[in-house]
Specification:
Layout: H1 4-12, E1 18-23, H2 27-40, E2 56-61, E3 99-101, E4 104-106, H3 112-118, H4 134-155, E5 158-161, E6 165-171, E7 174-179, E8 182-183, E9 190-193, H5 204-215, E10 219-221, H6 229-232, E11 236-240, H7 244-254, E12 260-263, E13 271-274, E14 282-286, H8 300-303, H9 310-324, H10 334-350, H11 362-374, H12 390-401, H13 409-427, H14 435-447, H15 449-452, H16 457-469, E15 472-473, E16 481-485, E17 488-492, E18 497-500, E19 502-505, H17 519-526, E20 557-560, H18 581-599
Parallel strand pairs: 1-2, 1-9, 2-5, 9-20, 10-19, 11-14, 11-19, 14-15
Antiparallel strand pairs: 3-4, 6-7, 7-8, 12-13, 16-17, 17-18
Helix pairs in contact: 2-4, 2-18, 7-16, 9-10, 9-13, 10-11, 10-13, 12-16
């Protein structure tokens, strides 16, 4: 008797249909689908004149009905969750050209900015940037995905399976896929994982708190983006973590019961928080270092002061590439830090009348910048005084963002790094650097995020207004002593103590492969199919996105794109990186392997 598996195998090896699976239908899954169609429709190559849509079949797996947004940009989330990238920066999110693939027509789709104009969404001016809600970006991604998925499904090229994938295995150089509903009959020549945030092993602290919340009245919210958050919490709130997720949560809580913000004065930038109905006794923030992220410059007129010139960017890239030509010999990140320090020092010196501290020699300035980049807790007279009361510290940063206070060195360094990040993301993708060196470069980039990934200035102004109202407390923000008590938790330092009945965890999991608990990755790791770049980083992949397998005999076309490849690539979390050249490289590789398969 012929088994179903054998019948499937026989079918697949006696025709030219190439089966491709895309696992994950967020923005990277969308980008992967677009790039595949660009390659196969012949717009980017002259090799595909004889390959029509009937020569491939695409299967898209997603655990949610909505295609395009992914979890960070879900369309039904609160409008109080904002992007931390402005519309002006999103000018680089380009549209899709129309594609004609034999008798299959795929329509064009506008860039993000053109789409906003068409739908009358508010956009930026030179004086002030606009930061849209995450759900607005989600609407764009959903519409863009629908516009390509519909014609592909109607033609019979694309099948969408709304199930969670839990296992990918190799079967005679093909790939088999299992979902929560069972084994998929089709075997695939290629599969790409474009999955985003994945659950990880709980830290000892979170494990302890989960056990505590099960046996007491304490309320622990481990998913700070859960949609019922506001109706789940108590009256005294502790928030673990002081990054962008914290700001989203505080903004949501701030607008509870019709509370609102207005300008504190007709001339200043600061706000006043109006409490119509007091929902909370207090909201207590804390993290290891106790500092919220710094706001981005308010608009183009201020931000362009920190932007490297074309000449400077060219010199920076050239210097980095010179060292990457001998990547295996680079045993420290010093070549990056030194190249950056030259640019940052020149820009700081050009702001001579707008900075708070002057250096006699540029070489001295460069050395200080290197120290600043290598150690985010570095102290110097040129940097903002972190011993200031937190409210004064934040006010000073906001005045810098408006160009109304002298810029500190750390603020300048952080903004220059942000401007060079897109270049670094391209330069440090699949470099061949020693793992330890890439580890340190990732750590340096992470260390700059308090500035380079900073929120819009309005977010920080809202924090200040809530601090002035007495609801938001940062008195114990720097690594407080935390005790579990029957009513919840007690947070204290040497001078102040707070009790909270609700703890909200806003510390988002890092893409550390060995800590991820999602079955799709743990199974691949257990089978020695994938391996981490290093113990603290994500999955090792090649320049064409194929995985670097521990098994030297592994030849199946399994690829991975996105944040779980942190270390193989540097940039993973930004929305623009979901449409990066690495995805084009993957799609080009798929076509090349398909042509080779036909010829074999």
């Amino acid at each position: 008797m012929v088994l179903p598996y054998e019948r499937i195998f026989t079918l697949m090896t006696t025709n030219t249909t190439y089966h491709i699976a895309i696992i994950g239908a967020g923005p990277r899954g969308l980008s992967g689908l677009e790039q595949l169609c660009l390659q196969y429709s012949g717009l980017n190559t002259t090799q595909t004149s004889y390959l029509g849509p009937d020569h491939i079949h695409l299967t898209l797996f997603n655990d949610k009905e909505t295609l395009g947004p992914g979890t960070p940009w879900e369309i039904d989330q609160t409008p109080h969750n904002w992007l931390n990238i402005s519309d002006r920066a999103l000018e680089n999110l380009e549209g899709r050209v129309a594609m004609h693939w034999r008798d299959l027509h795929i329509p064009s789709f506008p860039s993000y900015i053109d789409w906003c104009d068409k739908h009358d969404y508010r956009t930026y001016t030179n004086a002030r940037d606009y930061f849209p809600s995450r759900s607005q970006m989600g609407q764009y991604l959903k519409a863009r995905f629908k516009s390509i998925a519909l014609p592909l499904k109607d033609y019979g090229v694309l099948k969408v399976i709304t199930q969670k994938v839990i296992e990918v295995k190799t079967e005679r150089n093909f790939l088999s896929i299992k979902t929560t509903s069972g084994q998929i009959d089709t075997l695939f020549h290629e599969s790409v994982l474009t999955i985003g945030h994945q659950p990880t092993t709980d830290s000892p602290q979170i494990k302890k708190w989960k056990a505590h919340s099960k046996t007491t009245a304490a309320i622990l919210i481990d998913n700070c983006y859960r949609k019922d958050l506001r109706s789940t919490i108590g009256s005294a709130i502790g928030i673990r973590g002081m990054g962008l997720a914290m700001i989203d949560v505080v903004r949501l809580l701030a607008h509870a019961n019709h509370n609102y913000f207005t300008a504190a004065s007709p001339v200043g930038p600061f706000l006043k928080y109006h409490i119509k109905n007091r929902s909370f006794e207090h909201i207590v923030l804390f993290s290891l270092d106790g500092f919220p992220p710094a706001p981005k410059p308010v608009g183009k007129r201020i931000d362009r002061k920190f932007a490297p010139s074309k000449k400077q960017r060219k010199a920076f890239k050239k210097e980095i590439k010179t060292h990457l030509d001998y990547a295996s010999e680079q045993h420290s990140p010093n070549f990056l830090v030194e190249a950056f320090a030259k640019i940052a020092a020149a820009i700081y010196q050009s702001l001579s009348n707008e900075v708070g501290y002057s250096f006699d020699q540029e070489t001295q300035l460069q050395e200080v910048i290197k120290d600043q980049v290598n150690n985010k807790n570095f102290k110097h007279e040129a940097c903002i005084n972190r011993s200031l009361p937190k409210i004064d510290y934040l006010k000073r940063l906001c005045l810098m963002a408006f160009g109304k206070a002298p810029f500190s060195l750390d603020y300048v360094v952080g903004q220059v790094w942000r401007h060079l990040q897109p270049d670094m993301y391209r330069l440090f993708a699949h470099t061949g650097l020693p793992d330890a060196t890439m580890d340190k470069i990732v750590a340096i980039d992470e260390g700059t995020k308090a500035y380079s990934y900073g929120p819009p200035v309005k977010s920080v102004l809202q924090l200040i207004a809530m601090m002035e109202s007495g609801i938001l407390r940062l008195d114990v923000s720097s690594n407080p002593d935390i005790k579990t008590i029957p009513q919840g938790w007690q947070l204290s330092n040497s001078t102040t103590t707070y009790k909270v009945d609700t703890m909200i965890n806003t510390v988002l999991d890092k893409p550390k492969l060995e800590a991820i608990t999602a079955p799709i990755l743990t199974n691949l790791l257990k089978d020695d199919v994938i391996c981490p770049v290093s113990s603290d980083l994500g999955v090792a992949t090649k320049a064409n996105a194929l995985i670097e397998s521990k098994d030297a005999s592994f030849t199946a076309g399994l690829a991975m794109l996105g944040r779980n490849c942190k270390g193989s690539v540097l940039g993973v979390d930004a929305i623009l990186e979901c449409f990066s050249p690495e995805i084009t490289h993957w799609a080009t590789g798929v076509l090349t392997r398909h042509l080779a398969y036909i010829d074999s």
